[in-house]
Every structure is written in C-alpha cells, then in structure tokens.
DNA sequence: CCATTAATTTCAT
DNA sequence: ATGAAATTAATGG
C-alpha cells in the first residue's frame, strides 16, 4: 500500500526516524499504527524454536507493513525491524480508520493491495513447500519480481544478501550459494558483481 | 590501514 | 548432501 504522504500527515501521521536494526514492533504487540516507509528498509520476521530467523518479507520505500492487523483484533504474529536507518510515517489506528472513511477510494485500493498480497503469498507458499532448493529460490525470485515493474529478463537485480535470501527461503546460506551457482550455469539467472539478475 | 560484515570454500558428518 | 567452521573478499571508517 502506498498512501499520499500529505494525506497521511493531514490525518495526524508523524515522521519517525529509526536507527539501523531498531525494533518497530514485536510479536505479541497490539497494532496501534499504520506504518509506511518513506526511506530505508524494514524486515518482518520470526525466530523459530532454536533461534533461527525466518524473514517473511523485506519492504522498502513507499511500502506499508502490518496493515492487515489494523482490521483485526489480534496481536502481531511477527516482528518488524529496520534493516538500515529509516524514515517511517506512523499514523494512529483511529486516525487511519477516519482517513479511510473520508476517502472511500482508499478502501478500494487497499482491497487491491491485499488481494495482490494474498495471491503472491499463496504462490510463495507453494514454492516454499517444495524440498527442492531451486524451486524455493525460483519462487522467491518470482515473488520479488512481482513487486518490480519492468519485465525484461535478467535485469531485475536482487539487493539482498545471501544470508537474507537464506532466511527468506528457510534454506542454509551454503545451500543458497550452491543452488544459485547451479541456476546460473543452467541459465536461469545471471550475476552482476555478486548480485542476482533475474 | 584496520575492523566489521558478507561471500565462498573447506572439511567433517 | 548438509552445515559448521575456516578462509577470503568487500565495505566502511
């Protein structure tokens, strides 16, 4: 979701600065704000029973996060933390609801966003259910590319570290490296420096 | 430069 | 085939 900054401000949205690696909300918290990134990157994650991290998603400029929880009476099922110094607009839940009531078109836009997210999450889930690391990586790449507008082959560059990719797919970093190498040989992906082009 | 962090390789299982 | 540990490369001050 990407809502006009001026509109957010006019309903009481405030700019908040987060330092690198700062917690924005954590699992179990009750949703109180709508969050939209102006600058920086945010990850949504969980830690499994033996402390390994699983990343649900990494969001950037003009993307919102956690908004589904504003419509539910549930605690957050995951954490949100900044990956780098970030600027985020924060709008209190009640004001957010007010804003939507006064701007019905937003409601429609949100439906479109949620639908899109559910759709791609479903595709992701199918890929992640596979034991085959190539399919998991391919699933992630397709998912990431869906956020990206352009549609040329091997020109979408993945700006994540190998470790982050591992945490997004539930694979080990070595497996990611080995599998990516294989995919490159098979022509599925290309490399520019060490970044993936898909 | 040195320190930190990421990528890759090695090695044991 | 997989992951922990060691090594090498890059990034940032």
Describe this entry's structure for a reader.
There is one protein chain. This protein has 198 residues and is an alpha+beta fold. It is built from 6 helices and 11 strands. A hairpin with a 5-residue loop joins strand 4 and strand 5. The radius of gyration is 18 Å and the shape is globular. It starts with a helix and ends with a strand. The mean pLDDT is 92. The structure holds a DNA duplex (13 and 13 nucleotides).
Write the layout of secondary structure elements.
Layout: H1 5-10, E1 14-18, E2 23-25, E3 33-39, E4 42-47, E5 53-59, E6 64-65, E7 79-82, E8 86-92, H2 93-102, H3 104-128, H4 133-147, E9 157-158, H5 162-169, H6 173-185, E10 190-192, E11 195-197
Antiparallel strand pairs: 1-8, 2-7, 3-6, 3-8, 4-5, 4-7, 9-11, 10-11
Helix pairs in contact: 2-3, 3-4, 5-6
The chain binds a DNA duplex (13 and 13 nucleotides) through residues 161-163, 172-175, 177-178, 194.
Brief account:
This protein is of the alpha+beta class and 198 residues long.
Count of discrete structural domains: 2
Helix content: 25-40%
What's the rounded overall pLDDT mean?
A: 92
At the third CATH level, what is the topology name of the largest domain?
Jelly Rolls
In the CATH classification, which architecture of the largest domain applies?
Sandwich
- Rg of Cα set: 18 Å
Order of helices and strands: HEEEEEEEEHHHEHHEE
Short key terms for the protein model shown above:
6 helices, 4-stranded antiparallel β-sheet, 2 domains, DNA-binding, single chain, Jelly Rolls, 198 residues, 11 strands
């Amino acid at each position: 979701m990407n809502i006009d900054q001026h509109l957010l401000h006019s309903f009481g949205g405030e700019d908040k600065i987060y330092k690198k690696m700062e917690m924005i909300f954590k699992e179990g918290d009750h949703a109180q704000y709508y969050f939209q990134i102006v600058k920086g990157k945010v990850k949504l994650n969980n830690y499994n029973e033996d402390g390994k991290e699983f990343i649900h998603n990494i969001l950037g400029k003009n993307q919102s996060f956690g908004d589904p929880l504003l419509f539910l009476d549930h605690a957050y099922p995951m954490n949100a933390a900044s990956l780098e110094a970030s600027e985020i607009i924060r709008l209190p839940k009640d004001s957010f609801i007010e804003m939507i009531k006064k701007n019905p078109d937003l409601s429609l836009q949100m439906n479109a966003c949620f639908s899109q997210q559910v759709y791609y999450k479903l595709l992701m889930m199918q890929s992640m259910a596979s034991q085959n690391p190539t399919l998991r990586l391919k699933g992630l790449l397709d998912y990431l590319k869906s956020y990206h507008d352009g549609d040329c082959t091997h020109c979408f560059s993945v700006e994540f570290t190998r470790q982050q990719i591992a945490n997004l797919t539930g694979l080990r970093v070595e497996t990611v490296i080995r599998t990516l190498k294989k995919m490159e040989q098979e022509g599925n992906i290309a490399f520019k420096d060490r970044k993936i082009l898909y």
